[in-house]
Amino acid sequence: MGREHVVDPEREHVVDPERVHHAWDMSIEPALVVESGDTVHFDIPMAGAGQVFEGAPFHEVQFDFDTIYNLLGPVAVHGAVPGDTLEIEIAALEPGEWGWTVILPGLGLLSDEFPDGYLKTWDLRNGVRAVLCSGVEIPFEPFLGTMGNCPDIPGVHLPFPPMKGGGNMDNRISPSARCSGCPCGARAGSSPAEIRMRLRATVRSA
Fold this sequence. Notes:
- By secondary structure, the chain is mainly beta.
- The chain has strands spanning 12-14, 20-21, 24-25, 32-34, 39-44, 71-72, 75-77, 85-103, 118-123, 129-133, 136-139, 146-148, 156-157, 166-168, 179-183, 189-190, 196-205.
- The strands form 6 sheets. Strands 1, 5, 8, 9, 15 and 17 form a 6-stranded mixed sheet that branches.
- Residues 1-7 and 186-193 have low confidence and may be disordered.
């Protein structure tokens, strides 16, 4: 049976939406320091925000893979030390108004079958289903495609490919009300955000 939580307003936090970065880096100071069991709200720009625009065709988009991932935070958990496992309950996810899917030439398991680039933007405003074409609709089941901790290695670490602390894992079987465990590296934290979309996420440290 699932755990019940009574949210204490004094233990709720909102991450500054201006604290966006694009890679894990030990030199970035925490945007928040929270206690175990606290609830944290994020308003996360979609991957590719400012690079992909609603309705744009593939040939009009210029991807910058050094800045395509938007990480919000970091958030430090007081008392967590390297070697601990950070358990996060994803309490709620609210999609934004639109999202996108792309086929990139030469990337992916089916690149030989789909050699040409293609971009699809999706209208998500009905909040229930995204329409691919007449008669084909995709029900919403949002998840955090990218989340994790900064590794205990100096330098800048991009979310893709994933590493020991997490990254772009696209784990659709860990949706709302599930928990994710990531090993703590240099500093315990979380930077939570398929159709890539803006997400409002609420998470709770266990």
